[in-house]
Known about the structure:
With 188 residues, the protein is α+β, with helices and mostly antiparallel strands. Helices cover 41% and strands 27% of the residues.
Amino acid sequence: MFGQMAFKQTKIITLTIGAAAAALSMAAAPQASAGVTGCKASGGKQEVGALVGGLIGGLAGNQIAGKGDRGTGTAIGAVIGAGAGSAVGCNMQKTEAAQAVGGIYKSGGYRYAQNVEAERLVKMDHKYVARSTLNLRASATTRAPRLGAVSSGQTFQALGRTSDGKWILVGQDGVGVGYVSSAYVYRA
């Protein structure tokens, strides 16, 4: 009876330490693409993956570690599990983002929706606001097909600008979805 109770308490303590280590690793991670919370695609799968991975990793680390090192094994397993779960979740988010724009391709270090032409761009990663409703174009010219619009007052992600500064590539979850004229936007 006492042995079963001690085993259950050990499991609860292991899960608690695993959850704490996973949360700590998420909070301490840098806000970069490789960090636990820095996925360039929106969604909550990365955070959930990190939490689940941290719990499973903590449990596995506890079981693998020797009797005297269970706490260390749990913490190390939780951090490794959180990182692995984070990567899986981020990949899932990126796949969903690509599907949302009808597929993507890569060119010049950028990811583009299938219906958007790649241009030579100066990299930027800022938020901008549209001064008026703007046409979203397939390439950096007014003669390009209209793909949609950016509404007046809408804040959007800017991935890059053309070398002449006249056009900005609008991003959605890190994917270029069209170009707007830079004359009608301001930095948020």
